[in-house]
Amino acid sequence: TAGKVSRKTLDTTLLNMPLFVIGADKASIQWLEQHQEELKFMQATGFITNVNDFETIVALQEKFKLPLLPVNVDPLLAYLHEQHYPLIIAEGALWQ
To answer: Which is a Pfam family this sequence falls into (predicted)?
Structure first.
C-alpha cells in the first residue's frame, strides 16, 4: 500500500540495478514527479503495482520516460520487511 517508508540499509549484492516501486495512486505519481530526474540519472527500472489497466502503465511511461513493469510486489516487500511504497532500492539502501 502507499505510505511512509523509512530509510534502511540493505544487502543489494544480488541486485545489480536500481529499482523503484510505485502504485497507480495519486501519492505514488506525485512521488514519481519529484524523483523523475534522479531515477533517470540512476537508470532505474520501475515496478508498478495495484494498477487496473495497461493503458495507465503506458501513459505513465510516456509521461515520465521511465521503464515501468507491472509486478506483484508483495513478495519483494515481504523480503524487504516493508509494507509501503513508493520507494527506491539502490546503492545498498532502501528509501523514499
So the answer is: DUF2859
Mean pLDDT split into 10-residue runs, the chain, 96 residues? 80 81 96 97 96 94 96 93 94 90
Cβ–Cβ < 8 Å for 86, 27: yes
Q: Where are the domains of the chain?
A: 8-95
Characterize the bridge pairing of strands 68-70 and 45-49.
parallel
Which pLDDT does position 7 carry in this prediction? 78
Q: Kindly list the strands in the beta sheet with 8-9, ordered across the sheet, starting from the edge strand earlier in the chain.
A: 8-9, 93-95, 87-90, 19-23, 45-49, 68-70
Closest CA to 19 of 80, 62, 63, 60: 80
